[in-house]
Design goal:
Length: about 375
C-alpha cells in the first residue's frame, strides 16, 4: 500500500553496497545521543531534548520503538509507518520539527518484520493484519501505562493508516482520535484513478513516449505488479508519486548513505530490504488489497477521524480521500490537504504536517 517500489529497491541496493557508518541503539529506555546542527540547537533548545530508542516485546517478538519529545507530559502520538515494511525511523530527524515535539510525545515503531524489527526467524505467517493489529493495541496500552494517559493519539501513513483503521475497528477506546495520512481508501479505485491521471497528464504535457508506455498496459489492472510499476514510475516523474519536492529524494538517500542517521546499525540497514520484501509479500496479496475498501468496511466510526493528505498525491489520490471523508459518519472529522506535498506528506512539507497535527490536537478534548 506504499508507493514506487523501484525507488525503494534502488535505495536499498545502494545501502547494501555502501560503506555505511553504523550506529548503536539503546535498550531498556536508555537515551541515545543525536547529532544536531548548531543552528537547530540555537533555534530551540528543547528540540530533541528527550530521545529514547528501545526494544519492546509485542506478540512475543522483539520490536523497536523511537520516542522523541520536548516534554514527557504532552499527549502521546503513536505513528504507524507505511509500506508494508516501509519504516521511517532512519529519517525521523529530517522531518520532525520543534513544534511537533513541543506538543506531542511522538512514538515511531518499526512494525514486526520491518526495518530494525526484522529478524531471520520471521515468516509471512508472522506478518498478518490481525497480528499487526494486536501489536498496535499492545504497544498502545504499554504507552498509556508508561505515560499515565487514559487515551493517546493514533496516526498512520499509507499502509499505516490502513492498519490504523483495522485497529480502531477492533478497539477504538484507547484513542482520542485517529489521524490517517495519505490514505488509500479503496485499492482498486485509487490505483485506477492514479492511472487515469497519469494518462491525462501525459496528454496535456504532450509526452508521447509516456502515452505509449501507459497505453501499452491498457486495460490497466490494479492488482498486476507490472502495471502498477509503470503507473508509479509515471506518477513519480510527474511529481505526484512519493515526492513532489524536486531533489528531496536525493537528500533522503544520501542522508542515510553518509551515515548521518543515528538510529540504525549497518546490519539493520542491510536488512531493511529483506524486511520490506517480507512485509510486502505477506500483506500485499490480491485477496487482501483487492478487498480493501473503506466505503463498505468503515462507513461509520465511533471516534474523531482527521485526514491529512498531500494535495499533489496521485498515488493515494486526495480526491478519493475527500470523497470518503464526506461519506464517513464520525463524532468529529476534518480534512486537511497540504499543498506542495505528494504521498510522503511529512517529508515534502514537514512544517505543514506538524501544524496540522497540532491543530487537530488543540481541537480534540483530551480530559
Amino acid at each position: 500500500m506504499y508507493s514506487f517500489k523501484l525507488q525503494r529497491r534502488l535505495l536499498l541496493l545502494t545501502f547494501c553496497a555502501a560503506n555505511f557508518a553504523g550506529s548503536s541503539f539503546a535498550q531498556d529506555r536508555q537515551e541515545i545521543a543525536v547529532t544536531r546542527s548548531g543552528e537547530d540547537v540555537a533555534a530551540i533548545e528543547c528540540f530533541g531534548s528527550f530521545v529514547s530508542q528501545e526494544i519492546v516485546v509485542l506478540g512475543g517478538i522483539e520490536q523497536t520503538i523511537l520516542i522523541r519529545t520536548c516534554d514527557l507530559s504532552q499527549p502521546v502520538l503513536l505513528f504507524l509507518h507505511g509500506g508494508p515494511g516501509g519504516a521511517v525511523m532512519p529519517w525521523v530527524d529530517l522531518f520532525h520539527t520543534p513544534l511537533l515535539e513541543e506538543n506531542f510525545v511522538v512514538v515511531h515503531w518499526d512494525q514486526r518484520g520491518a526495518g530494525s524489527s526484522f529478524n531471520d526467524d520471521l515468516t509471512i505467517e508472522d506478518i498478518t493484519p490481525s497480528k499487526l493489529v494486536a501489536d498496535t493495541l499492545q504497544l498502545t496500552n504499554l504507552l498509556r501505562d508508561r505515560y499515565r494517559q487514559e487515551k493517546i493519539f493514533l496516526s498512520g501513513h499509507s499502509w499505516g493508516s490502513a492498519l490504523g483503521f483495522m485497529t480502531i475497528a477492533e478497539d477504538s477506546s484507547p484513542y482520542h482520535a485517529f489521524i490517517p495520512t495519505s490514505e488509500r481508501v479503496a485499492w482498486v479505485r485509487s490505483m485506477n484513478m492514479g492511472f487515469e491521471w497519469a494518462l491525462d497528464q501525459a496528454e496535456v504535457r504532450g509526452d508521447a513516449e509516456t502515452q505509449r508506455k501507459l497505453k501499452a498496459i491498457e486495460p490497466f489492472d490494479a492488482l498486476d505488479e507490472a502495471d502498477l510499476t509503470v503507473q508509479r514510475e509515471v506518477l513519480a516523474e510527474y511529481g505526484a508519486g512519493d515526492f513532489n519536492t524536486e531533489g528531496l529524494w536525493d537528500r533522503y538517500l544520501f542522508y542515510v548513505l553518509e551515515g548521518r542517521s543515528p538510529y540504525y546499525t549497518d546490519a539493520q540497514v542491510k536488512n531493511y530490504r529483506r524486511g520490506l520484501d517480507l512485509s510486502s509479500t505477506a500483506i500485499e496479496q490480491p485477496e487482501i488489497v483487492g478487498a480493501y475498501d473503506l466505503f463498505t468496511s468503515h462507513p461509520v466510526l465511533d471516534l474523531p477521524i482527521h485526514f491529512i493528505t498531500g494535495a499533489e498525491d496521485q498515488n493515494t489520490p486526495a480526491d478519493l480521500a475527500r470523497e470518503y471523508y464526506e461519506h464517513l459518519k464520525a463524532p468529529a472529522k476534518s480534512f486537511t490537504p497540504i499543498d506542495g506535498a505528494a504521498h510522503m506528506v511529512m517529508y515534502d512539507q514537514p512544517n505543514a504536517w506538524a501544524e496540522a497535527l497540532v491543530q487537530i490536537r488543540n481541537q480534540t478534548p483530551t480530559n
